[in-house]
TrEMBL record, chain A:
UniProt xrefs under InterPro entries: Bact_solute-bind_prot3, Solute-binding_3/MltF_N
Name assigned to this protein: Glutamate transport system substrate-binding protein
Lineage: Bacteria, Bacillati, Actinomycetota, Actinomycetes, Streptosporangiales
Pfam families for the chain: SBP_bac_3
First and last residue of the signal peptide: 1-27
From TrEMBL, chain B:
Upper lineage: Bacteria, Bacillati, Actinomycetota, Actinomycetes, Streptosporangiales
Record protein name field: Glutamate transport system permease protein
Alphabetical list of Pfam families matching this protein: BPD_transp_1
Family statement drawn from the similarity comment of this UniProt entry: Belongs to the binding-protein-dependent transport system permease family. HisMQ subfamily.
Highest taxon above the source species: Bacteria
Domain ABC transmembrane type-1: 15-203
Record keywords: Amino-acid transport, Cell membrane, Membrane, Transmembrane, Transmembrane helix, Transport
The species this protein was found in: Streptosporangium sandarakinum
């Protein structure tokens, strides 16, 4: 039985080793010389004192000296905690810091690790001020929370193992087992595009990739950006076809706070106009996607925003 | 409320999977737990040591760690089963440690003279365990076993983290579409509470009928 314990210990240690390795891999894009978030936000816009209306949400945040953001700590390129520095890095994280700088004058944020199950409740009871968490704007959600933006538009793609044939479009997934991230928009999207597909879900992106490689499913549906990053790290998987959905991400705000919504939309217009939005993109998602920053989506252009 | 009512089929399917997980893993846990208890009270030192090591190993590792290791680790060494099967086996092996401890406390509650008398009458160790000790032991641990059953029911929700679409995973998926976490998770919680209440009711009845007054 000692041997079983030893086997368990070895397995546990190798798992730790594995996760440590993948940790260094994902930190790799942070090459020395690349602009850090601090430099990035050095010339970020700050709101004029007149814009911080008395009694408003903005004033409350400014008095507190810290913006409380609902976000993830485990989404690569979007909002991921760097295990070495403890900083949260990525597109969503930097956008949150830029908004904090706009309100407070300094990029001071506190990220509350929120999940898809809790976002609406966290906004409604005031635990967080805003949510930056690949929060797709939908009319159903817009009944619970207000959305500023959209601030980014993404789409779902399909990844398969290198030698897989016969899967090029979402309809090909019918009757097959498909892997998706738990609590991601991929689940309803697969149900819509391929109603006969069987969906299995895992908590995080690395788990989904592992499951794909271990044949728990024939395909993995996820945000294209993440899949491109995965395929770059791991040559045994590949992305097929073009994105088959368009997901407008919004900034979640407390329902009915129109004053704050207008304020955030004004800030978004300014960051896009000044080129800050594009620089934040280049510094995060742009490290795996080729080419220049895409055109940001039109603010208020989708139902629910 | 409509968020729950509109998705009753999804909840129902999730509930069925949860019930399957619960029933299958409790049956497995009871069988393994019984064997471990027999080992722990046996006169053979090696068997006692193996039983103790088993209980200590599984009680000291979190169930989620075991599930993740089994689902993602075992295929690396060529052992691969379906997600539901893997979850049932892991939960059964894990809960067997708790069942074994509950049973052992029952065996210890049977006075040593009973076992000695059985052996003096010429029964083998297995026979004395089967006909004399265990029937009395089981009657004293109905409530503790009921508690293990309830804990096991709640623990099945961890299978949602490794791809099994149980009640918890179903609630997550419904919430993803409806964005109404409070009614949805209250609904799922009520379903778990109902299973636990049934278990409590059954063990209460069993204890009144079978429990021994000393």
């Amino acid at each position: 039985m000692v041997s079983l314990k030893r086997v368990a210990a070895v397995a546990a240690v190798s798992m730790i080793g594995l996760s440590a390795c993948s940790g260094t891999d994902s930190a790799a894009p942070a090459v020395p010389g690349e602009p850090k978030a601090g430099d990035l936000l050095a010339d970020a816009p700050v709101a004029a004192a007149a814009d911080i209306l008395p009694g408003s949400t903005m004033e409350k945040i400014k008095k507190r000296g810290e913006l409380i953001v609902g976000g993830s700590l485990d989404a690569p390129l979007l909002s991921q905690q760097n295990p070495v520095s403890g900083e949260v890095e990525g597109f969503d994280a930097d956008m949150g810091k830029a908004l904090a700088k706009y309100i407070i004058g300094e990029p001071k944020v506190k990220i509350v690790n929120s999940a898809s199950e809790t976002r609406e409740a966290l906004l409604a009871n005031g635990t967080v001020d805003v949510v930056f968490q690949t929060y797709t704007i939908t009319p159903e959600r817009a009944e619970q929370v207000s959305f500023a933006g959209p601030y980014y538009s993404s789409g779902l793609s399909i990844a398969v193992k290198k030698d897989t044939t016969g899967i090029t479009k979402p309809e090909d997934l019918n009757g097959k087992t498909v892997i998706a991230g738990a609590n991601t928009p991929a689940i309803p999207a697969i149900k819509k595009a391929a109603p006969q597909a069987k969906i299995v879900t895992f908590g995080s992106d690395p788990e989904c990739v592992q499951a794909l490689k271990q044949d728990r499913g024939v395909a993995y549906v996820q945000d294209e950006t993440l899949l491109v990053a995965d395929a770059q790290k791991d040559p045994s998987i590949q992305v097929v076809g073009k994105p088959f959905t368009s997901d407008p991400y919004g900034i979640g705000l407390k329902h009915g706070d129109d004053q704050f919504k207008k304020f955030v939309n004004d800030w978004l217009t300014k960051t896009q106009g000044s080129g800050l939005w594009q620089r934040i993109w280049k510094n995060s998602l742009g490290t795996v996607v080729q080419g220049e920053a895409p055109a940001p989506p039109q603010i208020g252009s989708v139902p629910g925003s | 409320m409509s968020a729950v009512l509109d998705h009753l089929p999804e909840f129902w399917e999730g509930l069925l999977v949860t019930l399957q997980l619960t029933a299958a893993s409790f049956a497995g846990a009871a069988a393994v737990g019984l064997v471990i208890t027999a080992m722990r009270v046996s006169p053979v030192g090696v068997l006692r040591a193996i039983g103790t090591a088993y209980v200590e190993t599984f009680q000291n590792l979190p169930l989620l760690v075991l599930l993740v290791l089994a689902v993602f680790g075992l295929p690396e060494i060529g052992i691969k089963a379906g997600l539901l099967t893997t979850a049932v086996v892991v939960i059964a092996l894990y809960e067997a440690a708790y069942i074994a401890e509950a049973l052992r406390s029952g065996v210890n509650a049977v006075s040593a003279g009973q076992g000695e008398a059985a052996r003096a009458l010429g029964l083998s160790f297995g026979q004395s365990l089967r006909h004399v000790v265990l029937p009395q032991a089981l009657r004293t641990v109905i409530q503790p076993l009921g508690n293990v059953f309830i804990a096991l029911t709640m623990n099945t929700s961890l299978a949602a983290a490794v791809g099994v679409v149980d009640l918890t995973a179903a609630a997550n998926r419904v919430n993803l579409a409806e964005a109404q976490p409070i009614p949805i998770f209250v609904g799922a919680g009520l379903a778990y509470a109902l299973i636990a209440a049934c278990a409590g009711f059954v063990t209460g009845r069993l204890e009144r009928r079978l429990g021994m007054v000393r």
